[in-house]
Amino acid sequence: MSSSSSSSSSSSGSDDDSVQSASVGEKRKMDTSSSSTTSKPSSASIKVKVAANNPEYDPVVVSFPRGIPTSITDEDSNATPPTFTYSKFKESSSRGRRIKGEDDHCAYSAAASGRGHDGRLSKTYVCIFDKKKNTLKLVPSAEKGTVFALDQSVKEYSPAVVNENSTMGGEDNTISASDRVKMLVDSFGSKKKQKVMDSRAANKVNVHSVVGGGNFVPENVKDSAANVDSQEVSYEQARRDFLPPFDADADAPQKVYNAQALMGEAAWNKVSGIVNRRLRDLKEQGGDSGETICEMLVGKGHCPKSIKVLMRDIKPSATGSPYRFKVAFFLYLIMRFYNKIDRRGFLRGKTVDDCINECHLPHETGVRIFDLFTTPIEGKEDGFLLSKQLKTKMYVYCLILFIIASSKDMAVPDITPLYKDLRLDDKQAAMILREAGFLVKKSKKGEIGVTLSTPLVFPPPRRGKRS
After folding, report:
1. Cα(460)–Cα(457) distance, rounded to whole angstroms?
2. Strand 135-140, strand 47-50: pairing
3. Which helix (H) or strand (E) holds 297?
4. Which burial class, exposed, middle or buried, applies to 232 when counting CB atoms under 10 A from its CB (0-12, 13-18, 19+)?
5. Which positions ≥6 away from 199 have C-beta within 8 Å?
6. In a 10 Å sphere around its CB, with 0-12 CB exposed, 13-18 middle and 19+ buried, how is residue 246 labelled?
């Protein structure tokens, strides 16, 4: 009995399994049948139209390689979006186009010369899809499919007055490969390398001075005064690179060196705002002391003795005193930068803003100071270097600023306090000022007096000693 019952139970179990497998098979068949009956997605025909080139109505396509301005991406920003002007590349030619734009802080520019662009393998089209008519219209961008990659520049970083080898407004201020090599050798090269570079510059020959080189060869032969000494040209260029911007044709000593041009527009505006606020506060308090203005500008920080004496001798209510205070305050900021970087000769930082914050300088003036007296360090660790040549350049700027702030007539009886704060000796200070066109005299007491007269006369070039 037991065996029969067990066999019956096993047979019933197999029947149940067969029923389950059958039901699963039927489900699979139903699923496949339902999927086979599903309708395919409906398709619609779209007509594609390619428009011909129409220079008057083709859209202008631009790109921002350095990032889209926040005035466009940020809706909550109060900044004004940039406005652009689209014009001919040259007024005398119908080929090529130029696009320029600017916003509150930046300027944008791009151009297409209009030559040789028809052979490109790819061009840019603007696609317009009409849902009602199911049409896709392809319109070529302006200049036969050109994308204008906008070159971005910051307005505040462009100097208002620069040397002869640059241009106004920050446009077309490219540096040739030979100039880059010269700048690199001047900053990091040995004295031997620097002499080689000076010799190369002095030996450059002008093609118009060669016999048969043009129509003006006979004129140069007739008039020997028209011949230009190549060494004088090289010395003049070196002097322009070494000194602040100056007017060689000035008719008065105070017009030779302009502190506003030396500082740059952005730094001058920042310093002017700070000094004008302090003078306004002092006037409301009823005071008229230069020492008080010095304390208000410098604060509790360390101030060189020469700067304190300079500001103390300026009477705030006198005519021209705001200008002198601004020059003295900018000189103080340079001294603060110098005292910070002179310990190691460089500052570490990923960006110039990091180094400016480390020196505790106002941003606009800090940018100008680092642009004048430092070079970026390239390598594993980022930073900015104060080379020997740039340090000498900084000495020149500081001495001239001190003279401008001390006297309207560009005559100072004693500059000893300043060159001591700069850690210079009297011979170095006298040599630097003579190179800048000043007359230097040392009294019996050891005081060094300087004066500047017009017309401006520079000393002849110094010849190095033969080894």
Report:
1. 9
2. parallel
3. helix 290-298
4. exposed
5. none
6. buried
DSSP SS3 for 399: helix
If you search the block for the tokens 């001239």, which residue do you land on? 400
Cβ–Cβ under 8 Å, residues 368 and 348: no
SS3 145: helix
Phi/psi-derived region of residue 143, left when phi > 0, alpha when psi is between -120 and 50, beta in every other case: left
Residues 6+ away with beta carbon under 8 Å from 405: 259, 310, 314, 324, 325, 327, 328, 331
Closest CA to 152 of 120, 183, 108, 188: 108
Could you report the per-residue pLDDT of 215-250, keeping only the tens digit for each?
A: 444 454 444 444 455 666 777 777 788 788 888 888
Q: Shortest CA distance to 253 belongs to which of 454, 440, 437?
A: 454
Q: What is the DSSP letter of 108?
A: E
SS3 per-residue string spanning 298-360: HCCCCCCHHHHHHHHCCCCCCCCHHHHHHHHHHHHHHHHHHHHHCCCCEEECCCHHHHHHHHC
Rounded distance between C-alpha atoms, residue 61 and residue 257, angstroms: 46
Choose among 209, 198, 247: nearest CA to 456: 247
How far out from the chain centre does Cα 62 lie? 23
Mean pLDDT of 48-67: 83
Tell me the sheet residues that pair with 148.
62
Whose tokens are 């920050």? That residue is 170
Angle at 158 between CA 169 and CA 77, to 5 degrees: 105
Give kind and range of the element (H or E) at residue 451.
strand 448-451
> Is pLDDT at 315 greater than 80 in this prediction?
yes
